[in-house]
Amino acid sequence: MSEDLDTARETLASSLSRPSTGRVYDFYLGGRHNYAIDREFGQRMVDMMPEARIFARENRAFVRRAVRYARQEHGIRQFVDIGSGLPTQGNVHEIADENDHDVRVVYVDNDPVARAHAQILLADTADPQRHFAIDADFFDGLELWERVVQMGGLDPEQPICLLVTALLHFVVPDQRPERMLAAYRDQLPSGSLLVLSHCTDEDTTPALQEVAARYVATTSNAHLRGRNEVQAFFGDFELIEPGLVWTTEWRPELASEDEPPFDGDPASTLAIAGVGRKH
Ligand SMILES: C[S@@+](CC[C@H](N)C(=O)[O-])C[C@H]1O[C@@H](n2cnc3c(N)ncnc32)[C@H](O)[C@@H]1O
């Protein structure tokens, strides 16, 4: 393990030439797993568009509520989080483990820095028998899915909650993300859930377009989508009530007692979100 951690630390030291989307997001969240290059970029974005911090905070809050929903309402015990970012407070495994300690979680991110952080932080907070982090790309497709199932010890016959949150706005249309997501949806057994959030240019501040264009300087380009395009990512999955809504509008009652209710303009969250169920 210590050799692995040494490698992880070396990866961190050598991967700081560009702001990383995951670390910039951590900066928006007020986290500590970011570097000067990320903070400088992130601060410029916040100066242009203060809603960036609201987006990150409320997107994370949506993820927590959706995980709670999957666990409590559907009894799901297997979670796969693609584009998971840096572990932060209220990680999927922490929320999923709130009541029972029998939940398996596989985190996937293509940023070796995020993966290195995940490894270091999971070593402290997670159960190595049930919680895993893989350095892989959303576009690795079925090969990735096989790794996820094998490494996570997942039962492919039992429902899985697949999280793809705040990821697809870093995938441009030429990459055909809808095809790849459809391949993952096909792998999921009946009763599985898809949790998805995405920044949108419909009814949000025009500054978001400018901020998205600036992401060319980071580890990922950004691409905003309208409501119909985001809805199409769910394919034939049934959208659970209340459907595709601003992140803060998705089942706010599932927030924990220590999470203050959001009382701002829902459009200031910049992102829409939903949960779909496979029949
Ligand atoms: C904004 S963070 C979202 C983190 C988390 N999913 C959330 O909603 O809070 C986006 C993450 O997606 C990762 N990412 C971007 N493109 C990816 C790809 N093609 N495959 C896997 N991860 C990717 C980035 O490295 C980053 O950590």
From TrEMBL:
GO MF terms here are: methyltransferase activity
Which stretches does the entry tag as region Disordered? 255-279
One of its GO biological process terms is: methylation
Signal peptide per UniProt: none
Keywords carried by this UniProt record:
Methyltransferase, Transferase
> What InterPro entries does the entry give?
SAM-dependent_MTases_sf (IPR029063), SAM_dep_MeTrfase_SAV2177_type (IPR006764)
The name on file for this protein is: Polyketide biosynthesis methyltransferase
Query: What is the originating organism of this protein?
Result: Amycolatopsis alkalitolerans
